[in-house]
Write a structure and sequence with these properties.
It is a single chain. The chain is α/β, with parallel strands linked by helices and 691 residues long. 35% of the residues lie in helices and 22% in strands.
């Protein structure tokens, strides 16, 4: 790969600048790790002498060759001089370990800007500053300044960990390495002055030794670039993301419901789902999801057989499987009579052979072998969860080999949950070495099943999406002028142009008199003004007008309270399920489509979903299914709705957003009444980014 990323991740020669012979110093810890690598190693310290058996050169200029990679084990100030020397010499890549840059305030920011100015125009690439750097086990590249006795290093594997924070990842790498979990690389990019997550994703997307990308981010260097890479990578390799900073509200205008409902994280969640990213919420979950996907292919369905030697284990597992909160909302497999008979014939008479299958504390090797054999042949089983307490007397280490045999050679995927102490540590090490996904709690094991199911669902969706492109053919351009204040009447006229259903209406301009009304009663009278965004709170809406006399009184009342502004008279729509549909500009990802339960309770229920413009019909369908209240659109208690009409409306609003991609700040259609025959927007507002 170009751009000298290869020199960073697979160097042929490495120099540690700031190397030291004094134990405990950062320059000594890093050099101690680097000298173990499969590349030529040099060390620089102006004081001279030796360190780790290497001569200490006075300067990078004195080395016998220009190294591919320079690791700067120096404080922030001296880092600048060393970096300048490396850049002038033509070193291809630099790892700047030191903190004390932009993360510390104005003075540090100024130092970082100087470092950036040095890089500008050169071919040298820089990782950091403020980073632990790299750990690439396959070639022994390790720039971490954490001593080996404080942090275990994982063995070579197929998971790439890309992290904006080093400390958030090293703890999990340490504990996972204890049980034999392995990685292809850890890259901490720190302040990402130069190299960022997107370039690293490009590299590991093409790396044959990497099958899974596990990422920790606090922000996105290039949000659109990140999503584009995810869409390209996810069909071939899973991308798992722990996105921190969920609770911090972004800078946004909240005059409309769409703004207040977007929150700080909902749009991010929708964008990640749309791009196929598997999102997790803590570091353990990140590594668990990466491991199960590195070891096992996804599953197409999620009918789970629970095998255990403890009744309580089986009950807890069943609750997690079938419940939604907390749980994964899947199903226990219904076992065939033949399967139950095979298990019963090998078990004791008081064993439970219905699912969950409890072989009791009398479990021995033969029972386990027979039960796992029987489950392989059952067509109603998609995956096996084996929760195994290691305390009963008949259990020994040979049972681990039986489990590994069926996990590796059986037709059904298996997740193992070994529960215990010393023997479980040995079991976990053997399971990981054999690439059998094992987790030390029932909930973690059930979550691993959910990860496999999510990955399978995502791949099916991506395959189907090839025949479900964004529909743009025949889309009509609306005629609103961006930036010009518009009232409800003008917004609805534009919506009507793009095929969105709105009520039949007329408008009275200031000074116009009420004439013949070509509308059917009952009617609604509203104030239509760009300055009045929340009409209900200002009594700017009068409903249920039954005849001409009531209409004249309503118009007079409205005009007495609103001297300016148009008066909108509409046919009153019948009942239906009230939804909110809109567009909102997210400060990170741009313009998003939103839908949720609407009406006056929209902000109370906060039941909404988001996708980035443009969306497909499949995206729209998925948005509806994510809502807690989606059953209202699917015949709940006999309620009839035009669900397909609502999907049509969402796609048309996405088209609308495409036409005004850079112009719309927020747009509300609230409520959209979903009736048996159509979905109709009975209120509509727009705020422009300017004007």
């Amino acid at each position: 790969m170009g751009n000298n990323i290869e020199a960073l991740l697979k160097p042929q020669s490495v120099v540690v600048v700031g190397a030291s012979a004094q134990e405990g110093k950062v320059g000594n810890i890093i050099l101690t790790q680097v000298v173990k690598g499969k590349f030529r190693v040099y060390a620089v310290n102006p004081k001279g002498g030796t360190a780790c058996g290497l001569p200490l050169y006075a300067s990078v200029r004195d080395l016998p060759e220009v190294p591919d990679l320079a690791v700067l084990a120096l404080p922030a100030g001296p880092t600048l001089g060393a970096a300048q020397e490396c850049i002038q010499l033509g070193v291809k890549a630099i790892v700047a370990i030191a903190g004390g840059f932009s993360e510390t305030g104005d003075a540090g920011y100024a130092l970082e800007q100087q470092l950036g100015n040095m890089l500008r125009g050169s071919q040298t690439r820089l990782l950091g500053p403020n980073t632990l750097g790299l750990l690439v086990p396959g070639i022994g590249l390790d720039t971490n300044f954490l001593p080996a006795e404080h942090m275990r290093r994982p063995d070579p594997g197929n998971i790439a960990i890309l992290s904006q924070s080093g400390s958030i990842a090293v703890g999990e790498m340490d504990s996972n390495a204890l049980t034999g979990v392995s990685i292809s690389a850890f890259v901490g990019f720190g302040n990402r002055l130069d190299i960022n997550e997107n370039e690293l994703m490009d590299y590991y997307a093409e790396d044959p030794g990497t099958d899974v990308l596990a990422m920790y981010l606090e922000s996105f260097a290039d949000p659109q670039g990140f999503l584009e890479r995810c869409r390209r990578i996810v069909p071939h390799k899973p991308v798992i993301l722990l996105k921190a900073g969920r609770s911090e509200a972004g800078a946004r205008a909240v005059q409309l419901h769409t703004g207040s409902l977007a929150g700080s994280d909902r749009v991010t969640d929708g964008a990640l789902r749309q791009a196929g990213v598997i999102r997790v919420y803590d570091t353990q979950e990140l590594m668990d999801a990466a491991r199960v996907l590195a070891f096992m292919p996804p599953i197409d369905d999620c009918r789970v057989a629970v095998l255990t030697n403890g009744g309580g284990f089986g009950i807890v597992a069943s609750d997690f499987i079938e419940s939604n909160r907390p749980g994964i909302g899947a199903k226990l497999a219904v076992l065939s009579e033949e399967t139950k008979q095979k298990i019963a014939s090998a078990a004791l008479s008081f064993a439970a052979v219905r699912n969950p299958i409890d072989l009791t504390a009398s479990l021995n090797n033969a029972m386990c072998d027979a039960a796992l054999s029987a489950l392989q042949e059952d067509p109603g089983v998609d995956i096996i969860l084996f929760t195994l307490g290691f305390q009963p007397p008949a259990i020994d280490e040979n049972l681990i080999d039986i489990i590994i045999h069926w996990a590796r050679n059986g037709s059904k995927p298996m997740i193992v949950v070994p529960i215990g102490s010393d023997i479980v540590l040995k079991a976990m090490q053997k399971f990981n070495a054999a690439k059998v996904p094992a987790f030390t709690s029932i909930w973690r094991g059930v979550q691993a099943i959910d990860t496999l199911a999510k990955r399978g669902k995502m791949l099916r969706k991506l395959q189907a999406a090839q025949a479900d492109p964004v529909e743009t053919a025949g889309a009509v351009a609306p005629t609103l002028q961006p930036g010009a204040p518009v009232g409800e009447y003008e917004v609805k006229a534009a919506l009507r142009e793009v095929g969105v259903n709105v009520p039949r209406s007329i408008v009275l301009r200031p000074g116009e008199q009420l004439q013949a009304i070509p509308l059917n009663y009952p009617l609604v009278v509203k104030i239509s003004s760009a300055e009045i965004l929340h009409k209900t709170e200002q009594k700017g809406v009068l409903l249920g007008i039954r005849d001409r006399d009531e209409l004249e009184k309503a118009v007079a009342d409205m005009r007495s309270r609103f001297a300016t502004g148009d008066i909108l008279i509409e046919e009153m729509e019948g009942r239906g399920v009230e939804m909110i549909v809109g567009l909102v500009r997210d400060s990170t990802f741009g313009l998003a489509v939103m839908c949720g339960l609407g009406g006056t309770t929209a902000e109370l229920y906060q039941d909404v979903s988001f996708r980035m413009v443009p969306i497909t019909r499949r995206d729209a369908d998925e948005m509806l299914r994510e809502l807690k209240g989606h059953k209202l659109l699917e015949g709940f208690r006999g309620i009839q709705t035009d669900r397909e009409g609502l999907i049509d409306l969402l796609v048309k609003i996405s088209h609308f957003g495409e036409f005004y991609q850079d112009d719309i700040l927020q747009m509300d259609l609230n409520p959209v009444i979903v009736q048996p025959e159509r979905a109709v927007a009975v209120d509509a507002k727009i705020l422009w980014t300017q004007g």
